[in-house]
Specification:
Rossmann fold, Dihydrodipicolinate Reductase, domain 2, 8-stranded mixed sheet, 39% helix
Length: 309
């Protein structure tokens, strides 16, 4: 199978590393920075590479494309792949805004291929197990979703052109949509050091299901050792909390602890799903372009609330 990766930054390299470990792949990379393109050429067995992603798409004719470029290049590359009936996996945020995401949804519907949003947490064993707890009815109907995601201050310089809501909080917005089943209706938000990259961003969202979401992210820790991500769901009959990378604590009619397997590799699971979808001729992913659109609608509500403060 021929897979093209667009973007050879940190995310692109992780995709290449995992695809290489999967085996049976003929790989090509598009990267406009010559030094980075040469670096990945030494790290991985590539069949082709180019500074121009569109030229490489025409020449290499891949079975699938992974878009791991800066966010402003996502939509043009995704549209180009879909127009050629080539399946595409697009890193988050899939599109920079709601209008462009709607265009991508239309492009996916018109294509014989599929668009798989890169919402990787839907492939994480811990998050999937948390969803199982909710669906099995152990804690009753969802009333509240809460999450925290803290990252180090270097994010402010590494991701200058993208808001933390779209870069980091978008993961938790997608989790809330997935666990809740509703869509965002209204939002309020607060940001410490308004306008600064080194900030704490907090959002409160009301869902169409009558549940509420409290989502918090920060780019302010001085070093790489940040507190583990946490996700809590509160239902009418109890609660469950995921300590990411470790375990889930469930408190319902009885209390129990669910261990999360140390071997969990959500990127490998995501890419296995993408490759299986290419072979099947349809997406097999637990996330759709419509889910990505709903996530961007929620993100837009939060960004507007921040702007209006």
């Amino acid at each position: 199978m021929k897979i093209m990766v667009a973007g050879a930054g940190a995310f692109g390299k992780e995709h290449l590393k995992t695809l290489t470990a999967m085996g049976g792949m003929t790989l090509a990379v598009a990267e406009r920075h010559t030094a980075e393109r040469e670096r990945v050429g030494k790290l991985f067995a590539l069949d082709d590479s180019d500074a121009d992603a569109f030229a490489l798409l025409e020449r290499f004719q891949p079975d699938g494309v992974i878009v791991a470029t800066p966010a402003d290049a996502h939509a043009p590359l995704a549209r180009a792949a879909l127009a050629r009936d080539i399946a595409v996996l697009v890193e988050k945020p899939v599109a920079p805004d709601v209008a462009i995401m709607r265009e991508l949804c239309e492009a996916a519907r018109a294509s014989r291929a599929f668009l798989q949003p890169g919402h990787i947490l839907r492939f994480s064993a811990g998050h999937r197990r948390l969803l199982d707890v909710l669906r099995e009815g152990e804690i009753g109907r969802l009333l509240r979703f809460a999450s925290r995601r803290y990252r180090d201050a270097s994010h402010a310089s590494r991701y200058v052109g993208i808001d933390p809501v779209l870069m980091t909080m978008i993961h938790d917005i997608d989790l809330a949509l997935w666990l809740d089943g509703g869509v965002a209706l209204r939002a309020s938000a607060f940001r410490g050091d308004a306008g600064a990259g080194r900030s704490l961003t907090s959002a409160w969202v009301e869902s169409s299901s009558k549940a509420n979401w409290y989502i918090e992210t920060a780019w302010l820790h001085p070093g790489p050792d940040c507190p583990a991500d946490r996700v809590e769901i509160v239902g009418a009959g109890g609660s469950a909390e995921l300590f990411v990378g470790s375990h889930i604590e469930v408190h319902g009619a009885s209390s129990r602890r669910i261990e999360i397997e140390a071997s969990d590799d959500p990127l490998r699971t995501e890419l296995d799903c993408f490759v299986a979808g290419i072979r099947a001729g349809k997406s097999l992913a637990p996330v759709s372009p419509s889910d990505a659109l709903n996530g961007l609608v929620a993100a837009d509500l939060i960004l507007r609330a921040l702007h209006d403060r």
